[in-house]
Amino acid sequence: MVLGAGEAGFREGSGRWAVDEVGNQSTDYCPDVSSWPAVAGALDQARVVRPSGFTHEMVFRRCPSCRQLNIVREEDFVCVFCDEALPKGWNADRPGL
Question: Please, what is the Cα angle at 21 between 17 and 26, to 5 degrees?
């Protein structure tokens, strides 16, 4: 099971690595925004300076009707493929709903 995935922008300054930007955008794993503690823990363990949370959050939901993966924008939980309502809770790990 993948605990976190996404993109990060690293920089080196004063002899230490730091992350300026970090997000959960990964359309392979589609991690929920609640994955931040796992990401923060990994960066802390590596002693990388980090922000206090994701600087870019993606909200992924799978449509229960057409099973397509959606990126929710502006809290509009409606499937862009079939106009059905999307669940409020994360469900991107269940392709065969």
Answer: 110
